[in-house]
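Q: Please design a sequence for this.
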């Protein structure tokens, strides 16, 4: 499975709440960092704690959330996903252009970093790919 296929499977598993597959494709020491670089960012550590949060925690905030992948950039150890998310179920509809950076170790996801501002997205691309820093998604 390529890194891109791994990340597509990650999204599918999240969308379908397939925790068994998530356990198989993520490391036990998984890190999930939301909106890195922003004051309200949060960090979750450990696959089981993250999966519990997904399945039992703030599940209401995930209902109605959609994520459209616009572009995927792959390296040997990372995948950057540029996309657009919408959450119409919140009291005020939320729309954001985002970048998700997945760090891969031993063919598994070991860290997810989310960025939701254009300058942070470009930083994410630069960090993950090095040579793509000056390019934008098309």
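A: Design:
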């Amino acid at each position: 499975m390529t890194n891109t296929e791994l990340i597509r499977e990650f999204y599918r598993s999240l969308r379908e709440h397939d925790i068994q597959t998530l356990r198989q494709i993520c490391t036990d020491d998984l890190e999930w960092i939301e909106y890195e670089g922003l004051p309200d960012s949060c960090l979750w550590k450990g696959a089981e704690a993250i999966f519990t949060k997904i399945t039992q925690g703030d599940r209401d905030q995930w209902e109605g959330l959609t994520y459209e992948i616009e572009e995927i950039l792959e390296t040997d150890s990372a995948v950057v996903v540029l996309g657009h998310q919408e959450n119409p179920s919140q009291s005020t509809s939320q729309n954001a252009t985002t970048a998700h950076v997945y760090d891969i170790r031993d063919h598994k996801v070991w860290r997810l970093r989310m960025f939701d501002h254009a300058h942070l997205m470009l930083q994410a691309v630069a960090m993950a790919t090095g040579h793509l820093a000056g390019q934008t998604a098309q």
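Q: Thanks. Anything notable?
A: The longest helix spans residues 3-15. The chain is about 35% helix and 40% strand.
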